[in-house]
Design goal:
By secondary structure, the protein is mainly α. The chain has one domain. It contains 22 helices and no strands. It has helices at 2-22, 27-43, 48-67, 74-78, 82-90, 96-100, 103-112, 118-136, 139-148, 155-167, 177-186, 190-215, 231-255, 259-277, 281-317, 320-335, 337-353, 358-368, 378-395, 400-409, 413-419, 422-442. The longest helix is centred in the last third of the chain and has 37 residues, at 281-317. The N and C termini lie far apart (51 Å).
């Protein structure tokens, strides 16, 4: 059964890419059926909250679709977030060359070099998340934790540096399916969105480090380790990162395809070329074979959540419920844009705290609200949704980031999200709100 599930994901991803470029006869219906099959196959594998929320969104969506008389376009609704599944499946391949070129070891040496000062180490860890996180995604947390284990750092320090460093990249990294989901639903091109998002991401990084300067005064610090590292490897990572962005924009310009597809193809091409540069094609193929078998275990939750949330949001947007949501948001926008931005971020975070995954809230808002109706530019609306997603990631007990931290640090939600990062969350929500509002006033 595991083999069937694994192959179904790959067949779906390849079929969608093929249909995107060659417009196969009955392609949309075929891909729609394949999407439904993948959802049903993976639903049986899920456990706990992920299974409950995904099943609920799927079956409520089906009931609403038939009762509202919109069943004839079911394949369009179920495929809304399909491009993101392709991204989830293919983009992790870009991390293969990092291990093949032993970049991870040099990253570890670079971070440890600043272990004599808690503030410098905090900055080096959060800075490394900013560099590596967009490429390796959540794998960055495990990678950095493995590299730092011998230092036996305080759990509070690790919880703060990992969570704040990782979340600094969510709102701007094109490797994250959440960002491309929002841009896809709001219909904003990446090149228009990215400058403002990077500014907010850098502000997040700055606030994280400034706040830690005050917090570090209460920490005892006796760790000193200064290993040698090669700066060339870090420079190569920066060059690769820049090449990726360049390749994405070139593909988008040449073929005029969805940004999600451009990112996917760029990741594949760059990972192959990078492996050839390292003279490690055999190692690349070996890792790919291993990953092909593990893809289902690594991505099953995300795949089903994205597909069912996209379907649910699409169906709801065509009902009176969608009109009600739109009316509420428009009323807030007419009252105050500042209040609107703050309300969306806070509301999403509060729902996430009680267990409602932000993908549900964000999908509902993105599919039912038109930015121009509320008096703001689509870029500002997209940035607001992404900052809401980021804040929700910090305070949600069910996000993958927090689940990983619970396991790594053997601490619960109360310690990691509330006790050690609660004040930071309140501060960063205020920073998000004010910075987005200033961008709205000055540039948009």
């Amino acid at each position: 059964m595991e083999s069937i599930r694994s192959w179904s994901i790959w067949v779906l991803a390849i079929s969608f890419l093929t249909h995107t470029f060659f417009a196969l006869p009955y392609g949309e219906k075929i891909v729609g059926f394949l999407t439904l099959i993948v959802i049903l196959l993976l639903l049986s594998k899920l456990k706990g909250f992920s299974k409950v929320i995904s099943s609920s969104m799927l079956f409520i969506g089906i009931i609403v679709m038939f009762s509202s008389g919109n069943a004839e376009n079911w394949e369009e609704s179920i495929m809304v977030n399909l491009p993101l599944v392709v991204l989830l499946v293919f983009v992790p391949i870009l991390s293969f060359p990092i291990g093949l070129g032993k970049y991870d070891e040099h990253v570890g040496h670079f971070i440890k070099r600043y272990s004599g000062s808690s503030r410098k180490l905090f900055f080096s860890i959060t800075g490394m998340f900013f560099l590596l996180g967009p490429i390796i995604n959540m794998g960055t947390i495990r990678l950095i934790d493995d590299l730092l284990k011998k230092l036996q750092l305080p759990e509070e320090f690790l919880a703060k540096s990992y969570l704040r460093g990782f979340t600094a990249i969510i709102m701007w990294s094109p490797f994250f399916a959440s960002l491309l989901l929002v841009l896809h639903l709001v219909n904003v091109p990446l090149y228009s969105y990215l400058p403002a998002a990077i500014v907010v991401g850098l502000l997040h990084l700055l606030v994280s480090n400034v706040l830690f300067i005050k917090e570090s005064k209460k920490m005892k610090w006796t760790i000193v380790e200064r290993p040698h590292f090669r700066l060339r490897k870090l420079n190569e990572l920066i060059v690769i990162f820049c090449l990726f962005f360049l390749l994405v924009f070139v593909l988008d310009f040449l073929f005029n395809i969805k940004m999600v597809i451009s990112v996917t193809i760029a990741a594949l091409l760059l990972s192959i070329l990078w492996s050839l540069y390292l003279k490690a094609p055999k190692g690349f193929l070996a890792r790919f074979k291993q990953y092909r078998k593990q893809a289902i275990d690594l991505s099953a939750n995300e795949i089903v959540l994205f597909l069912t949330a996209g379907y649910f949001g699409s169906v709801i947007s065509k009902t009176p419920v969608g009109e009600v949501i739109n009316h509420i948001i428009v009323s807030l926008g007419n009252l105050s844009v500042l209040l609107l931005i703050f309300s969306i971020i806070l509301f999403t975070g509060l729902l996430a705290m009680v267990g409602l995954h932000q993908i549900v809230t964000i999908s509902a808002l993105a599919t039912t609200v038109v930015a121009v109706d509320i008096g703001i530019d689509p870029v500002i609306f997209a940035l607001t949704l992404m900052c809401a997603w980021t804040s929700a990631t910090i305070v949600s007990p069910i996000t993958a980031v927090n689940v990983i931290l619970f396991n790594l640090l053997n601490r619960g939600f109360k310690d990691i999200a509330i006790r050690w990062n609660g004040i930071f969350t309140l501060v960063i929500i205020s920073v998000y709100t004010l910075s987005i509002y200033m961008l709205h006033l000055i540039f948009y």
